[in-house]
Amino acid sequence: MQAFDYSEAFSRNLGILDEDQQQTLRESTVCIAGMGGVGGDYLVTLARSGVGRFRVADFDAFELANFNRQYGATMETIGRPKVEVMAEIARQINPEIELESYPDGLTEGNLDEFLRDADLVIDGIDLFAPDWHRRLISAAQARNIPAIAAVPVGFGAGMVGFNAAGMSFDEYFAWNPDAADERKVLQLALGFAPAGYHLGYIQPESVDLKNHRGPSSIVGCKACAAIIGAQAIQAILHPSELKAAPWYTHFDLKLMKFKHSRLRWGNKGPLQRLKAQIASHRLL
C-alpha cells in the first residue's frame, strides 16, 4: 500500500491556493456541528481541501430515511453513530487528520470545549433544532470566531455568515426566544433564503413544521457543501473578507437564479415581515 504524503495528496490544490495557504489550512481547526445532510459533506469537502484539524458533534445515528441526501448513509452504516462513520471517512482521506468527536452532540456542558481555539465554526445542525443554531452562532460571535451556516432549500442553498463585527444572530433573524419552535424554524428559513426561489416548486403540503418534516434533496445538500467549502477556506485564509450578516447568498440550481445581497434590517424589514405572515398562513 502506498504511504500517505500530505504534500502529494493535496498538490492539485496548488495554483488555486499557494503553499503557504495550504499549510495554513493544514494547521487550522474547524468545528462542525451536525454530521447529517450537510455537515457530513462539509467535513469531507474540507478534509479534501487539506484542513488538518476538526471537531465534529452529532448525537444521531444513520437510518434509511437519510439515504436520499446524507454522505455517510449506506446499508452498512444503518444504526451507527454519524460522528463515528464520518470520522472514519475523513481519516481515510487524510490519515494524519486530527479529529475530536462529540457523540452526545452539543450540550451546555461541552460547548466551551467544542469551540476552544477554533479558527472557524460551521453550523450544520438540523433546521428543526432552532435554539441550538442560536446557541452555537452566538457563542462563536462572543468568542470572535467566524461562523458560517447554510440550509438546503429545494435544489439550492441559502448561506449566511456571522462574525463579531456583523449583526448578531438575534438581530438578523428577529429572534423571539419565547416563540414556538415552528415559528423559530420559519424565521430561520426566511433569513437563510430571502429570495424564496424554491417556493415556486416545493409543494406546501410536504412541509410540516410542527412535526419536524420537510422535503430535502441531495442537490440542495451538495449546493450547501460547495458554498460552505468555498466560504470556509476564505474565512480561514482571509477572515476580514467574510461578508457577515446582514449579507446573505441564495441560489437555486433548478431555476439557475442567484442573489448575493444585504438584508438590511434582517427579518425585521417590512418585506420580510410580510413574507413571514404569508408563510405562517400557508404552513402553520
Give a short summary of the structure.
37% of the residues lie in helices and 16% in strands.
Describe the largest sheet: 8 strands, mixed
CATH class: Alpha Beta
Strand content: 15-25%
Radius of gyration: 18 Å
**Number of separate helices:** 10
How far apart the termini lie comes to: 57 Å
Looking at the structure, the CATH topology is Rossmann fold
Based on the coordinates given, report the CATH architecture: 3-Layer(aba) Sandwich
Total tally of structural domains: 1
Overall 3D geometry? globular
Secondary structure category = alpha/beta
For this entry, give a set of tags:
single chain; 284 residues; alpha/beta; Rossmann fold; eight-stranded mixed sheet; 10 helices
Task: Give a verbal description of the structure.
The chain is of the alpha/beta class and 284 residues long. The chain contains 10 helices and 8 strands. It has helices spanning 6-9, 19-26, 39-49, 82-93, 111-115, 130-142, 169-173, 181-192, 218-237, 270-283; strands at 29-33, 53-57, 98-102, 120-123, 147-153, 156-162, 247-252, 257-262. It is globular, with a radius of gyration of 18 Å. The relative contact order is 0.14.
